[in-house]
Amino acid sequence: MIRIEQLSKRYDGRTVVDALDLHVHGGEIYALLGPNGAGKSTTIGCLLGFVEADGGSIRLAGSSLPPARAAVEHAAYIAENIALYERLTGVENVEFFMRLLGKRPSRAQIEALLERAGLPEHAWHRMASGYSKGMRQKVGIVMALAKGAQVLVLDEPTSGLDPEASVSFGELVRSLAKDGAAVLMATHDLFRAQELADRCGMLVGGRLAGEWRLGELNAGELERNYLDILARRN
Ligand SMILES: Nc1ncnc2c1ncn2[C@@H]1O[C@H](COP(=O)(O)OP(=O)(O)OP(=O)(O)O)[C@@H](O)[C@H]1O
């Protein structure tokens, strides 16, 4: 699970995350929405230890380690663009990553992970330089699976993916949540958020301006709520 309490971050004296409380349970997908500059990436940066918070606390998977250490132990991060070793094949990328984790997987184990993530078999032994964005996202999911991550953090994971790739990526994320992972996904894609997430929160000026359970809202209602909040602030 993810437990963020009273998180705050300032840049040059300006508060960009403001006493934020946000909880994501194991097995739950939470979409973090909000306009440009709302503080989504900064929140994720604090969560993963890339950014040092000015206040508050973050707990990942019940660990009492500081966020950067807890993230190494328990979290997988899928950014908008997945960086792979371009001259290694998909199988070699996964093998390299798993060796960094101290694991020595067999070829068959790696191929089973790639198969579960839906990477086409013809790509397994091709250099990653030729991979599409959707294929890279699948390798990212394989890394999360290989790690047995209890926390999955996604930043704009489906931007630039075609609808079919988005749907298949969403199914993978849901299967990780079904296995118990807590998933936090920052996105501008209200439609995908409504389809995939169990709950969502809207960040404005570093504060949660709204939070909804998505079973109770369709995509149109979510969009209306989103726009209403922005209109009230302007
Ligand atoms: N390293 C930094 N130095 C100074 N200001 C920063 C830094 N990183 C982010 N900011 C500012 O903090 C605010 C929040 O930015 P952040 O990237 O977290 O927003 P976001 O919600 O992820 O936006 P987007 O949807 O555009 O990615 C913005 O005003 C941004 O300019």
From TrEMBL:
Keywords: ATP-binding, Cell membrane, Membrane, Nucleotide-binding, Transport. GO terms for molecular function: ATP binding; ATP hydrolysis activity. It comes from the Bacteria. Residues 2-230 form the ABC transporter domain. Gene3D superfamilies: P-loop containing nucleotide triphosphate hydrolases. This is ATP-binding cassette domain-containing protein.
